[in-house]
User: Fold this.
Amino acid sequence: MTFSPAHWQSRLDALRATHRVPGATLAVFTEGRIHELASGLLHRGTGVEATTDSVFQLGSIAKLYTATLVMQLAAAGELDLDAPVNDVLPEFSVADPDATKAITPRRLLSHTSGMTCDFTYDSGRGDDCLAAYVAAARNVALDCPPGAAVSYSSVGYNVLGRIVEVLTGRTWDQALKERLLAPLSLTRTMTLPEEALAFRTAMGHLPGDGPDPEPAPAWDMMPRSAGPYGRVLATAADVLRLAKLHLDGGSAPDGTQILGPRAVAEMQRWAVDVPDKWTVSADGWGLGWSLYDWNGIPGYGHDGASIGQYAFLRVVPGADLVVVLLTNGGAARPFYADLFRELLLDLGGVHMPPAFAPPARPPLVDMAPLVGTYRREGVVITVSVRPDGAPHLLYEFIDGMQDFSPPLSMDLVPLSDTVFAASGAGSSFSGDWMPVVFGTLVDGTPCCYTGMRCAPLAAR
Assistant:
């Protein structure tokens, strides 16, 4: 249907208010045109209004920028996606020497390297920050063996960022500007806070004492080294233009071929199934892209989150449709789900799946095969059965993550024999229920997925 700016402005305003999201910007490409809308406030403390030229933090959508740079290098013959990372970074290693040799750029791009997600290390503001980060991550334990499962890894994308630096002779920030932002004229996309000061910039908001979220204690808590996996800032329209590069087969609006069509297609090709189909709404993963199967209609995109800011990108290639939503707090994920459910149906014929929640009458499930202790780097998950027969999960942070949060005690409500909804750990981003999914590695080892991270069984 024809895009009606007045109608969608009304829906944006209404749904934003319903979900207590302070501010949001929306960019839609449909029928050959880009439409931009804004609603609410960038900062509840100052009252500055959100505008279409406002800049938000993109969180993990930054991974798409890094993946595009990596695929440029692969398309030019400068990088073999299936060779060990050690061929480019001899200093790279993980705790298992054999696993080190099995980690390739392709596995890093598709989150099948087994590398953990949550290794945190501030390597400073210098141009050597990524080199220092990769050095500090040496010998960090894997969540699972390479190729054994999909397990979301921000660390892996920092390794990819370092590969970009070595092969281009530029910092990751410089390579991004020269090889992607400048050719696409993305003048409102940046990586550093001092660059963002020149623009209207959104403040993240977190739950407060009242019904509305409050400004976060700090605007930006990410170190510079987080760039390749989570530190890009942009307007909604600039994010849309990056996605449109991929929708247009790697060609810029002026006809310049920035990424080859074969590389574009390879990024969108299904590389691995995602057992946890709810945390980031992904059915599968390509090389950088989350992949969706909306009842036979294919799509791709990505989600992102930083401190109180949440971003959502969806592409429906069959409808020549791109939708980007940037937000700064509140119940952002339910807001996205309600808005995109209407937008994608109206403009792309897509029926998005319902929100994740247990059924009114949960099935009876034999918990015996699932009870045990599961472990990944920094996290121990204990699955048990309460005396009253109710399934239960204890989520504990350990080692370098021990100060991240107190242990989380959650009841589990079954949706099926392997999929459960955890209560008591809801957030404004994920909603009231956290998906907990049980599966197996390729060798048959049981595992537990939370947050799209894989934790293999450690003990019964």
User: Anything to note?
Assistant: DSSP finds twelve helices and 22 strands in the chain. Confidence is low (pLDDT under 50) at residues 426-430.
